[in-house]
């Protein structure tokens, strides 16, 4: 009987692995990389190792491991999209194999986890370091149970977490603190907890090295005073830190598993959700926390449940967009994995509390089954819509912009990309991303000639000097902007008299997130004369008639 169960588990794992691989590869094939993906590649391609490790980390806010791995792909001659997608696919494969073949979960759970939105689409198709971070979290979960017997591999996994992302730093730190706090609570003595760690000299030495490594990484990514993200957080007039901290507990969990109230293009601190959405998400989040509480309380793991997420929530309260929300899935998988290693999670753990409320066994099982079906159906729907839109629509206009520029051999013409009024060093995202398809920066007004965003805050005095220098080069042949009216502001600011009234090219973009898409179109503007030179005909001004 046991051999039959193992055989069925193995067959299920193989089938799930094959199906997920096929789906992800299809998504990667159709996906057009956007600014975030291109930014990391451009830093890796056009910066020295010194600047990747010691300079740009202060402006990017994350450790340089992802950039260094991309650098390896670039060094062996892989082109932009191949290097980016292949690297991410490696970590997708690693995560999938760990869940299907090495996790302590039940067969149905191993089917459900890869079907979740953040695993099947967001972190598999959009190539950023988040799948690498998830892999590091799962490694830490695997080694957690024998941390005292084999501390080197456990602390190496935690250091790996620290090296992947700033969220990984907070998460790893929270795991260590929770481990110590939990041990002290179980022993009812801080002294006994400390004595056990000191007695295990290997673990103590590993913890010391981990602390030194974490502090070095923190120093490496600590924002400079002129870092854009830090100034954005400080200057924010939206939700305060404590409101966002509360939302990290009562909004993000629901957004991972059931609800879809967020816009991918907005920070959590900026989005104004209706009170009905906040209440709904809060109720669902409380249910999720209640389930985790029941599982962890039975295994005396409440410190391990609360403290790591409390540390993560400090960062999510300062800077987070919906594509970052998946950090909760990583946290939840770590907690459930370590809990299941202690004692297998069974269906009765969920049905018994319902039965105590007066429900029958059949009704209790029905409620749990309904919850599973709702979660699965919602995530299958999100994934289905995301992959459908990925195939039918253009995720980002950068690649089509680059193709258009190459088609008309315009890379050596004067191209100007527009910027945000709040900070002239924040340029049009699609313009920056299009640089990844060329050997060098093609826009003559990018800060210091860089091909990527520096995220260095631009003061009024600095911009005055830069504007003067741009003006000396003369008016550009083409302007790339988010909306055509931006050209008026640019001409006024730089003192150009030309009228950029002709739309030479429109790049269509639809940022995909769950069942939604947000428009991210871009426009290439030029004068009527340049348009005539380019296309051999006069530009016809678009008119709209009342129907």
Strand-helix topology:
Elements lengths: L1 H29 L4 H12 L2 H6 L2 H4 L4 H11 L4 H23 L4 H6 L4 H9 L4 H15 L6 H14 L1 H22 L2 H10 L1 H21 L6 H8 L5 H10 L1 H6 L17 H24 L3 H15 L10 H16 L5 H9 L4 H32 L5 H10 L7 E3 L1 E2 L2 E5 L1 H6 L25 H13 L5 E4 L4 H9 L7 E6 L2 E4 L2 E4 L2 E5 L1 H8 L12
Parallel strand pairs: 1-4
Antiparallel strand pairs: 2-3, 4-8, 5-8, 6-7
Written account of the structure:
With 547 residues, the chain is α+β, with helices and mostly antiparallel strands. The protein is 64% helix and 6% strand. It has 26 helices and 8 strands. It has helices spanning 2-30, 35-46, 49-54, 57-60, 65-75, 80-102, 107-112, 117-125, 130-144, 151-164, 166-187, 190-199, 201-221, 228-235, 241-250, 252-257, 275-298, 302-316, 327-342, 348-356, 361-392, 398-407, 429-434, 460-472, 486-494, 528-535, and strands spanning 415-417, 419-420, 423-427, 478-481, 502-507, 510-513, 516-519, 522-526. The longest helix is centred in the last third of the chain and has 32 residues, at 361-392. The model has no long low-confidence stretch (mean pLDDT 93).
Strand content: 5-15%
What would the principal axes of the Cα set say about the shape?
A: globular
Mean pLDDT across all residues, rounded? Answer: 93
Largest sheet: 4 strands, mixed
Low-confidence stretches: none
The radius of gyration computed from the alpha-carbon positions, rounded to a whole number of angstroms, is 26 Å
Task: Record the strand order, biggest sheet.
Answer: 1-4-8-5
